[in-house]
Specification:
Helix content is about 10%, strand content about 40%. With about 130 residues, the protein is mainly beta. The chain has a single domain, classed as OB fold (Dihydrolipoamide Acetyltransferase, E2P) (Beta Barrel), CATH 2.40.50.
């Protein structure tokens, strides 16, 4: 996926579904990177903006990727989903503290389309859901 011209990835097992961007209900007092709540087939889903969370500019309406970790789901707005790919053979390259984004980035993976920052879905879910 792409956000602000940067490539990001999640482990495929943590991605539940990919949706077109939808209107969300804003939560008063929540951080700017928490967009709000979305009714997804009767379930309330918190939606965050990955670009705002990482200090990157958002481009357009985007897409919502629903990720799951520890039995909890989170919607993540991204600019675009580029592909679904396997990186099983790609080694995880470490990142320095500044690029680890408060522990949200596990490392870099090199894929056919180029390098991508592998986002820790569990850490992202915990950091967002603890604030709402």
């Amino acid at each position: 996926m792409e956000v602000g011209g940067q490539r990001f990835a999640w482990e495929l097992a943590q991605v539940r579904e990919i949706l077109p961007a939808r209107n969300v209900t804003r939560l008063p007092g929540s951080p700017a990177w928490v967009l709000g709540l979305l009714n997804l087939r009767g379930a309330v889903l918190t939606v965050t903006d990955l670009g705002v969370r990482f200090g990157l500019p958002s481009e357009g309406i985007g897409t919502v990727v629903v990720i799951e970790s520890d039995g909890r789901a989170l919607g993540v707005r991204v600019d675009a989903v580029l592909s679904v790919a396997t990186a099983e053979q790609a080694p995880l390259e470490p990142v320095d503290g500044a690029r680890a984004a408060d522990g949200l980035v596990m490392g870099m993976v090199r894929m056919a389309a180029g390098p991508a920052a592998l986002v820790d879905a569990g850490a992202l879910c915990r950091s967002v859901l603890a604030t709402v």
